[in-house]
Amino acid sequence: MTTETEQKEVISENEDARRKDEIYEAAKKRLPSENVISLHSFPYEQSLEDLRSLNGWKDSEELIEKTEDLVARIKEKEAEDAKARDEYLKKHRRRRMVLLFVLLGSLALAALYFFVLRSEFKLLRARILIQNGNYTKAFTILKDMKNDRSQALLEEMIPQYKKQLFEEAEVGGSIIFGTFEQDNNEMNGGEYLEWQILDKKDGRILLITRYGIDCWPFDYKNKRSNWEKSTLRLWLNSEFYEASFTDYEKSMIAETLVTAEGNPNWDADPGPDTVDKVFILSISEAERYFDSPETRSCQLTAYSRAYGAYQSDNRTCWWWLRNPGSSTQKACYVIAAGYISKDGDNISAYRTTVRPAVWLTLEEN
Question: I want to staple 2 with a disulfide (CB 3.0 to 4.6 A). Which of 6, 149, 176, 310 is the partner?
Answer without folding.
Answer: 6
